[in-house]
Amino acid sequence: MFIQLYKTRIKCLLKNKESIFWSFGFPILLSIFFSMAFGNLTSQDTIDTIPIAVIKSENVNDSFIDVLNSMEITDDKKLFQVGIESKESAMELMNQGKIKGIIEYESDLTLYFNENGIEQSIIKTIADSYLQKSKTLMNIATINPDAFNQGLLEEIVQQRDFIVNGGTGQKNPDFTLIYFYSLIAMTCMFGCNWGFREMIDIQADQSAIGARINVAPTNKFKLLLSNLLAAFTMHFSSILLLFAFLNNILKVQFGDDLGLIILISIVGSLCGISFGAFVCVTFKINVKVREVMLTAVSIGGGFLAGMMNVDIKYLIATKAPIIGYINPSSLITDALYSLYYYETNERVFLNIGLLSVLTIIFVVVTFIKIRRREYASL
Amino acid sequence: MVVEVKNLVKRYDKLVALDHLNLNVEEGEIFGLLGPNGSGKTTAINCILSLLKYDKGTIEIFGKPMSPDAYDIKRDIGIIMQNVAVFEELTVYENISYFCSLYIKDKSEVKRLTREAIEFVSLEDFTKFHPKKLSGGLLRRLNIACGIAHKPKLIILDEPTVAVDPQSRNKILEGIKKLNADGATIIYTSHYMEEVEQLCSRISIIDKGKVLATGTKDELKAMISLGEKITVEAYNLREEEIEELSRLANVSSIEYADNCLEIKSKKGKNNLIHVLDYLQNHEINFGKIYTQMPTLNDVFLEITGKELRD
Ligand SMILES: Nc1ncnc2c1ncn2[C@@H]1O[C@H](COP(=O)(O)OP(=O)(O)OP(=O)(O)O)[C@@H](O)[C@H]1O
Ligand SMILES: [Mg+2]
Asked: Does residue B83 sit in the same domain as residue B155?
């Protein structure tokens, strides 16, 4: 009978076009949108040395070129390959695609790009902060020329930390990954809609169907288990599909440990489903209001995890770290990113652990709330 | 005794929805629960089914105390709720088969029973339809099929004909009679007295959560002091004529409005002859004339002082 109930439930869920779209269609659409916004992703799999040209002029002295040359991605990999050209030949090179950008330093610093991508934003970031730092430098230099020798240049060189953040030297950090990882996190949290629906359908005081099911001689928990299993099947398939799409079509990089990726998605899916169930049984308010709560948490949580703007993630991490610990989307994103970036998996397990704790809280509260078998009011 | 409810009390906060309600349903009968909107019919049914917590009282079904996990009792109950409860995503056939499979383990048995239920409510042409595509009446029939497919011994129907067209309504009422003829005991709630009169072998009238009277429809009518009601289409009656009519021997009350004279008689007495005599003797013009025996509405009116339906 269990299998029969499970099969019917799957059939039922499969025909719910709205849930299907939000779980299967929407994340993929969004990922396509992201990949278009970030340009050609495959070139960003790893950041390679960026060829640029600096246009000859009075302002372009050795120290400027030195700064550019001293930036490194890894110990044996320079950030820029700098050529000094005339403006015409530099333009020519850029049109041929041989260089990624041109720096002109007359009275002001001007940048020329042919396209917009991560390389260009790196060039811009570095140029901006050079400008800012060198102004400070000039001011100090007029007062105390020795300041040049007091490590200020090194500080500029440390700009590379902006890009290479405590890495192992093995992999290049890639913030565009955060967008995709938080998209996966959001999709995991979309599981709340499945969990919500299951709880509505099984409680006599929430739906007419729930009432009908409660008068049947079937153990409610057995039925709930088969229904939640069906929901999990649907939800987990949507996550796997998204992974496959990101990895195979959009060539988004993931860590190498497939087992851990699957573990993260299982715990993430369960967390999403149980969160929906938790909200359904805990807040006995209008169904629409509860649905809005779910949407707010799944999309808002994804946003806080860095889905729309990576800076948000760092703002949260520095200003309100607690949100990072209780926002399941942050935990999932961080687990995936740690898995990709760090050599050891401590941080991955920490995130999975926290995620499991949240999930267990949701499940226990839900269980306590629906254990009662008669209702005070229908 | 199929269902025995004793001193059932159910409160919603301060509102007492059921006030020491007592019901006895015998095997094989069609038992009617008649009461106006908000009288507590649905609340009573939900308590009987162990869906609702109640404050006081006992409920026994098939001689055993009812509880949420009394599965052996629940197996023999079929329930058709006031609200349609089917899955939008499943077809007519799949819906019936799903709910049936909550009661019956054997797969081929479920198939057979599903077919029978579809036949029973005449939905053969719609087995592949989704509920959204069904008309209101057809949807009600699907709702019924989902409740009775497993051939229960006790069937509870909570206002199954609300907002149903006459054609489907008759089909439903006939269906209920047939289920009863096949051996099922029926509990039927309604605020339509015509339906209850037509269908039920025994009736409890309830209001404000209390049973006011119980009996067959004749027993109920016998409880009240009214006899037949005479309605006469009479033109231009004068005050003193009405006054004189009301003083005729067996008249208990009289009303005149819109050229329509309504005379209620005392129980067991015949008034028609006297009324006709009076009209002829006073050369009063009259048209149609007919008499009616008291209805359950009159019973309700007499017990509570208000109409069953307003
Ligand atoms: N969930 C609830 N919370 C508070 N009061 C309720 C609730 N459900 C019903 N009531 C009240 O209890 C009383 C009985 O309601 P019930 O639904 O049992 O009436 P009913 O006889 O089935 O009416 P109807 O013919 O309209 O279906 C009503 O006064 C109603 O307002
Ligand atoms: Mg009701």
From this structure: yes
**Alpha carbon distance B3, A159 (integer Å):** 82
Whole-angstrom distance, CA of residue A305 vs CA of residue A335: 11
Ligand 1 pocket check for B280: Cβ under 6 Å:
no
Query: Would B193 be classed as within a structural domain?
Result: yes
CATH of domain A48-157: 3.40.190
Number of Cβ within a 10 Å radius of residue B281: 8
Among B294, B99, B58, B79, which Cα is nearest to B188's?
B79
In angstroms, the CA B142 to CA A351 distance is 49
Q: Which CATH number is B207's domain given?
A: 3.40.50.300
CA distance B120 to A126: 79
Nearest-5° Cα angle at A38, A71 to A299: 115
| Mean pLDDT score across all residues of chain A | 81
Closest-lying ligand 1 atom to the alpha carbon of residue B82 = 27
Residue B212 lies in a domain: yes
Q: What distance in Å separates the CA atoms of residue A151 and residue A376, rounded to the nearest whole number?
A: 73
Strand ranges of the sheet holding A80-85, from the earlier edge strand across to the other edge: A80-85, A50-55, A101-105, A109-112
pLDDT at A162: 37
| pLDDT given for residue A167 in this prediction | 39
**Distances in whole angstroms, Cα of residue A269 to Cα of each of A59, A192, A276, B74:** 57, 9, 11, 35
Angle at A136 between CA A134 and CA A140, to 5 degrees: 110
């059939």: which residue's tokens?
Answer: A11
Please say if the pLDDT value at position A35 is more than 70: yes
Closest CB to B51 among A11, A15, A211: A211
Q: Where in chain A is the domain with CATH 3.40.190?
A: 48-157
Instruction: Give the span between the Cα atoms of A17 and A222, in whole angstroms.
Output: 26
Q: Which of A268, A234, A239 lies closest to A356 in space, CA to CA?
A: A268
Whether the predicted interface score ipTM is above 0.85: no
Same domain for B117 and B204? yes
Q: Whose CA is nearest to atom 6 of ligand 1?
A: B12
Looking from the CA of A125 toward its CB, the CA atoms found within 13 Å total 15
Alpha carbon distance B234, B258 (integer Å): 9
User: Are the beta carbons of B83 and A208 separated by less than 8 Å?
Assistant: yes
Residue B53: burial class (beta carbons within 10 Å; 0-12, 13-18, 19+)? middle
Distance in angstroms (rounded) separating the CA atoms of residues A262 and A268: 10
Give how far B186 is from chain A: nearest CA, Å.
16
Show the tokens assigned to B160: 């199954």
Query: Distance of CA A284 to CAs A195, A206, A366, B108, Å?
Result: 15, 9, 13, 40
List CB contacts (< 8 A) between A204 and chain B: 51
Q: Which atom of ligand 1 is nearest to the CA of B35?
A: 21
Q: What are the pLDDT digits (tens) for B249-260?
A: 778 888 888 888
Pocket lining: B37 vs ligand 1, CB cutoff 6 Å? yes
Q: Does residue B31 surpass a pLDDT of 90?
A: yes
The string over A228-262, giving b where at least 16 C-beta atoms fall within 10 Å of a residue's C-beta and e elsewhere, is bbbbbbbbbebbeebbeebeeebebbbbeeeebbe
User: How far apart (Å, rounded) are the C-alpha atoms in residues B26 and B62?
Assistant: 10
The answer to whether the CB of B275 falls within 8 A of the CB of B232 is: yes
